[in-house]
Each structure stands twice: as C-alpha cells, then as structure tokens.
Amino acid sequence: MFKQMKDMYKMQKEAKAIKKELSSIHIEAEVDGVIVVVAADQELISIDIPDEMTGAENKHKLSKAIIAAHAKAAKKSQEVSAEKMKGLMGGMGFPGM
After folding, report:
1. pLDDT tens, 8-62?
2. For the chain, which residues make up each domain, given as ranges?
C-alpha cells in the first residue's frame, strides 16, 4: 500500500513537471498571413494579424483565417502533449502507451 502511494506521488510530481514543460513549448501556425501561437498545454499565446487584413472588407476572411490557424496550432499542440504524456501514462501501466 505504501509503495502504491509513493508511486502515485511520483507520477503526480512527474505530471506537474510535464505540465510546466508544456506551457513553455510554443507552437506557431499560419493561415493567410494570420499567425496564431499556442502553448503545448493548449493556452492561446498570441495572434498576429497582418495590416492588410484589418479592413472591414476582410472581416470574414480574417475570421476564417484566425479560426483555421488556431485549429492548426491546437492540433499540433495536442500531438506534442500526447507525446510528452506518453512516458508518464506508460509508467502507470496503461497498455499500448
């Protein structure tokens, strides 16, 4: 019982370290000049909009570009997170990880 508690504490500590590491990994995605940066822990860091996209005539295109760039960055951040967590989950005895 004590060993299990010790192992759980160790895994919890490793998970915290991985979460901290994920927050420092930034993923950048670009669509139509709009650049979105997302941390590997899924936090939106920044959105860079080119000057030529700020006019009213580009409102719809800008909206679509932001959504697409965010989706692209979020997908990559999920892949990075999954890879980092793979080792921890394997240590918990989950098969295939």
Report:
1. 888 888 888 888 888 889 999 999 999 999 998 889 999 999 999 888 899 999 9
2. 24-85
| Angle between helix 59-91 and helix 2-24 axes, rounded to 10 deg | 150
Task: Tell the burial category of 92 from Cβ atoms under 10 Å away from its Cβ (0-12, 13-18, 19+).
Answer: exposed
pTM of the predicted protein model? 0.70
Region 24-85: CATH code? 3.30.1310.10
Alpha carbons 42 and 73: distance in angstroms, whole number: 9
